[in-house]
Amino acid sequence: MTDKAYALFEERQRARGIDLNVVREKLKSLAIETPSWGFGDSGTRFKVFRNGKAARTPYEKLEDAAEVHRLTGCCPSVAIHIPWDKTDSYGKLRSHAESLGVKIGAVNPNLFQEEEYMLGSVTNANAAIRRKATDHLLECVAIAKETGSKDLSLWFPDGTNYPGQGDIRARKVWMLEALKEVYAALTPDMRVLIEYKFFEPAFYHTDLVDWGMAFQLANKLGPQAQVLVDTGHHAPCTNVEHIVAYLLDECRLGGFHFNSRKYADDDLIVGAINPYELFLIFYQILDASADADPAVRGTVDAIAYMIDQSHNIEPKIEAAIRSVLNVQTQYAKALLIDREEVRAAQSEQDVLGAEDAVRKAFEFDVSPLLESIREEMGLPLDPMRAYKEGSYAERVGRRG
Ligand code: PSV
Ligand code: MN
Ligand code: MN
To answer: Any stretches that span the bilayer, and where are they (predicted)?
Structure first.
């Protein structure tokens, strides 16, 4: 049945001039990083529901993430969040990850949980608090060196709630000062990925409110600083794929935090709300991967695809699997765009022809392709079902 479906799919794509060997190779090399915090209990400001099955320690989070990798074959690394994942030995944590067949990925400092950060962390008017926040960032660089991580994902909750509450220009200077110290501590193979967000937890002004400010900071710091696009961190109606294309062309797109949103920073399962946006993001990335400038192509190759979701009602491992499969699906669809057809329509200024060349790839059912690749890689054809029927789910069920 699968063979027949794939044969039909192949025939159809071949007739369109799509080289499925290239598509297959690209799909097989897609790596998506899962977040440790997506495997622990999390919630909203209203309540954290405890279902008794979520991972309780950084070690268990890595085990759950490794199970997602075992089933999907495309999640070889796990981002950590400090101090949520604080442990007495990061070397031990690293070995634990490696023994499970995964690596520790980006290190995420946390500047939003200590009482002292109420009025800001690196942009607090109190120099001692700024020092403490910067020291935490430096501690995370040191942790990254121990875990073998190359990326530090930086998100700052800093901002103000009322006009006049803070000196916006002074805070801008303090932010740069802190980041310069962090940048100076990196080894040449490390990066800082700067994440922006348009509001929350601050409701009047946010120090790093958008991609333009993150981009400007990255430019001031140097080539090892790039922008991290969290898909949930934009005002409604923002054209995220445009931002992606712009940053790629400037060689400043470092990575993603994928998640879905309907309203604000909802942190829902990736692709659950607007899968077409995800597809269009991948279209821009794939288009840039064929850019004449090797620096742009190199930027594409180094993109860190990370998931940042934290669910308060869904079972964690299944939610992570769903997100990963949704990312894979949209990537597969974007790989079916005939970019020559798009280019031809663009050069003829054929508006609807160009739109059609992009959209029609989205409309293909790529499940025969994904199943065929899973079969080739020795993976379960239906990772979600395999999880539900497997012994790991039973083991998780005994937690509590
Ligand atoms: C902030 O909303 C954020 O997107 C940052 O990436 C944090 O590290 C993460 O969420 C915490 O869940
Ligand atoms: Mn994020
Ligand atoms: Mn967020």
So the answer is: none
